[in-house]
Amino acid sequence: MYILVTNDDGVSAPGVQALARKMMEVGNVVLVAPLEEKSAVGHGITIRDPIRVSELKVEGLSQVWGVNGTPADCVKLGLQELLQHECGLVVSGINNGPNMGTDVLYSGTVSAAIEGVIIGVPSIAVSLASWDYEDYSVAAEITLTLVKEIIRQERVLPPGTLLNVNIPPVPREEIKGIKITGLGAREYENRFEKRLDPRGNPYYWSIGKLLPTQEKNADLDAPAVENNFVSVTPLQFDLTNYQIIKEIKEWGLEGLKL
Amino acid sequence: MYILVTNDDGVSAPGVQALARKMMEVGNVVLVAPLEEKSAVGHGITIRDPIRVSELKVEGLSQVWGVNGTPADCVKLGLQELLQHECGLVVSGINNGPNMGTDVLYSGTVSAAIEGVIIGVPSIAVSLASWDYEDYSVAAEITLTLVKEIIRQERVLPPGTLLNVNIPPVPREEIKGIKITGLGAREYENRFEKRLDPRGNPYYWSIGKLLPTQEKNADLDAPAVENNFVSVTPLQFDLTNYQIIKEIKEWGLEGLKL
Which phi-psi region, left, alpha or beta, contains residue A10 (left: φ > 0; alpha: ψ -120 to 50)? Predict the structure, then answer.
């Protein structure tokens, strides 16, 4: 099986390197990732600029490509151009920091896995739920265990569905197991800091500060991770709110004179 | 009521200018939009660079800001920093080109409206379903009619839900009415064109080519627009695939030894 590995922290980030090496135990790994950090680029793709690709030499990995584009570009290019074989799995990560709740909308790492399922390849996004925990070895091992189990069981997700995995930043013996979760609320104190440049002109820094999780529902992602469970959330890319369609039809807009 | 108007084609695009002027009939319009075109940036936000904001003079509009960031940045900055009043509505558009099916994931215009509902403001994304139809007047009129009707009925969407509106590029008398729809499939022939630069180094252009809509289900967005209906799709930002959670729990991953 060929496995496309990508991320949004950039091709040299320790998380993606640990992941790529570990995935070699289950398949032929092709690493296609942004040359530069592309956190928070969401599902952006590059359509107005040319995309450059460099083949890189990385010890212990056979095929590594650095792309001057977004994570979604990497998956498109990787699957449609660079990888000359059928791809059995896209694994995106291991992200430096959690991707839970509304975070997933901004996340390049999760968007890469969404792009994988749009193209029709089973995909998983993996994040280590800490910005300053530097040991990706446990997260990589757990990802491998999860992938092996899915392969062993020959499980197939429904079309358009991916798994979003968040791993608690603790030693292996403290991890209590896996929990299948839903995306929870993710509250930020979104503020901008206004500064003046040396010439007196203003500019802003976005300083979204994560607020403590209020959510106590243990079936949601953040509470699961805070309780040292690996959170596995099935995500879909169809944003239609089907529940509300019937209610909106009753508004009578369909009979409105335009 | 204060209305924040934004888009992804840039602050000078004819679609957003037509929209902003028309929205003045129902509220105080503040236009906050990217200085440059930001199509296909998805839900990206700017967190590693400072954001510059320029107040612009545009005839007929009282408050216009140009931002060197993404549409989602514009909504965050607009609602949390620039607009000094409570905002009653975010309207994003009128986009040059359709935003239907999986398009919405890549769309800066739709992502701006998603950002609006994340912050808690009712939001609508509006697109004119053609890349070369230059008359935004009908689309702006229809948007106004829709907004007025929602205000008249005092309708409130559930939290986290926005309306994604796609308007057929035809004269008003050919528009058959509004249809409440779901997102349909959107198939692209995704290919990259490889070229060599003058120094012989390769680069790629993304050339996603939209394939003709195969979908015939008239309750979906693209068939509705092709039949000259205005498509109104309720979208949510919670990507959890709740339907599949029970099935995945039966895989037994929660009992897996890590």
Answer: left
Of the candidates A152, A150, A121, A222, the residue with the CA atom closest to the CA atom of residue A181: A222
Dihedral (CA of B29, B34, B36, B40) sign: negative
The CATH number of A2-184+214-255 is: 3.40.1210.10
pLDDT at A213: 79
Of A40, A45, A254, nearest to B206 by CB-CB distance is A45
Residues of A in contact with B193 (CB under 8 A): none
What ipTM does the predicted assembly reach? 0.94
Minimal-distance CA residue of chain A relative to B142: A258
Answer whether B96's CB lies under 8 Å from B120's CB. no
Q: Which residue of A has its CA nearest to B195?
A: A50
Instruction: Give the model confidence (pLDDT) of A84-113 as tens digits.
Output: 999 999 999 999 999 999 999 999 999 999
Of B42, B50, B178, the CB nearest to A43: B42
Number of C-beta neighbours around residue B10 at 10 A = 18
Residues of A in contact with B158 (CB under 8 A): 241, 244
> H or E segment at A252?
none
Band (pLDDT 50/70/90 cuts) for residue A256 is very high
Query: Helices in chain A by DSSP H: which ranges?
Result: 14-23, 71-77, 103-106, 108-119, 137-152, 221-226, 242-249
C-alpha A53/C-alpha A235 separation (Å) is 30
Residues 69-128 of chain B whose Cβ lies under 8 A from any Cβ of chain A: 70, 72-73, 76-77, 80-81, 102, 104-106, 111, 114, 118-119
How far, in Å, CA of B144 to CA of A140, rounded? 52
Decide if A248 touches B, using CB distance below 8 A.
yes
CATH architecture of B2-184+216-255: 3-Layer(aba) Sandwich (3.40)
**pTM recorded for the entire structure:** 0.96
CA of B51: how far to CAs of A42, A222, B37, B136, in Å? Answer: 17, 30, 15, 30
- The Cα–Cα gap between B57 and A57 comes to 52
